[in-house]
Amino acid sequence: MNSPIRVALAGAGAFGIKHLDGIRNIDGVQVVSLVSRDLDKTREVAAKYGIAHVSTDLADSLALPEVDAVILCTPTQMHAAQAIQCLQAGKHVQVEIPLCDSLADGQKVLEAQKKSGKVAMVGHTRRFNPSHQWVHKKITAGEFHIQQMDVQTYFFRRSNMNALGQPRSWTDHLLWHHAAHTVDLFAWQAGSPIVQANALQGPIHPQLGIAMDMSIQLKAANGAICTLSLSFNNDGPLGTFFRYIGDTGTYIARYDDLVNGKEEKIDVSQVAVSMNGIELQDREFFAAIREGREPNASVQSVFACYQVLHDLERQLAH
């Protein structure tokens, strides 16, 4: 495929805008349709980014013959059904994390991908952040082996607000969304499947109906372990912080920044063509479409993560 890849983007909220900003830096890609539930807001964002077609219905975008691919930045509860809708319409699809909020729905997406033969990718951004790529290169070169990962995922989110501080129409989830990043990253970096997983959760929020605090332990087949602490109650530094403890060093990743165990900065600026993990994720999606190959973070390659989340959910329910 040498002609421009034409994209429909669903979801004009905080993460949709992150994708639009990243795509601006990628040659040969054009966003031709924008979908979101608030038509006035959608038109406003579309005007800013030069997008000609707007709608409140994904089916309108899928009906456009020029659309090659779709990026879904919609509420978690819509991800699986919309991904299947895109694949059945003959479109390549990238769905923001998480792929689903139930294993059965994730399995349906995987089956739809296999039937369609289209590229289907999930936004497991940690695989693409330069900080984690730098560590991954050391691992694949045999220069570093993980003994333990210590991860903190902390937000202050006692009401439904998005990353821009705007009201959300849906409820986020520590397990199926935020834990998914670390569960997948740990197995990918360890190069070994997760064989043991345990979880504890704190009180259920009376209005939101979700646990606001959670603790997860993981063990890979090769013996590496991971401890993950998650909270929506943390009124302090926000985000996810990864400490890699290995046989030849210790590294701390804070999104696209990386330091060693002594807090000495490591230059990751040459790891990839950008320091923006979302942009790098999108570049991989479009490259896989052009090259007719399976992308890093394909539905197939991340599916084991959702099996672990399913097992943890069952454990917590009991």
Describe what is shown at a glance.
The protein is of the alpha/beta class and 318 residues long. It has helices at residues 14-23, 39-49, 58-62, 79-88, 103-116, 130-140, 174-190, 277-291, 299-317, and strands spanning 5-10, 29-35, 53-55, 69-72, 92-96, 120-123, 146-154, 194-201, 213-220, 225-231, 239-246, 250-254, 257-260. The protein has 9 helices and 13 strands.
Secondary structure layout plus pairing:
Elements: E1 5-10, H1 14-23, E2 29-35, H2 39-49, E3 53-55, H3 58-62, E4 69-72, H4 79-88, E5 92-96, H5 103-116, E6 120-123, H6 130-140, E7 146-154, H7 174-190, E8 194-201, E9 213-220, E10 225-231, E11 239-246, E12 250-254, E13 257-260, H8 277-291, H9 299-317
Helix pairs in contact: 1-8, 4-5, 5-9, 7-9
Keywords:
9 helices; six-stranded parallel beta sheet; alpha/beta; seven-stranded mixed beta sheet; 25% strand; 35% helix
Largest sheet entry: 7 strands, mixed
Low-confidence stretches: none
Tell me the distance between the termini: 50 Å
Computed CA radius of gyration, to the nearest angstrom:
19 Å
Number of strands: 13
- Helical residues, percent: 25-40%
Structural class: alpha/beta
Mean pLDDT: 94
Strand content: 15-25%
Strand order of the largest sheet: 8-9-10-7-11-12-13
Oligomer kind? single chain
The geometry reads as globular
Give helix and strand order, one letter per element, not per position. EHEHEHEHEHEHEHEEEEEEHH
> How many helices in DSSP terms?
9
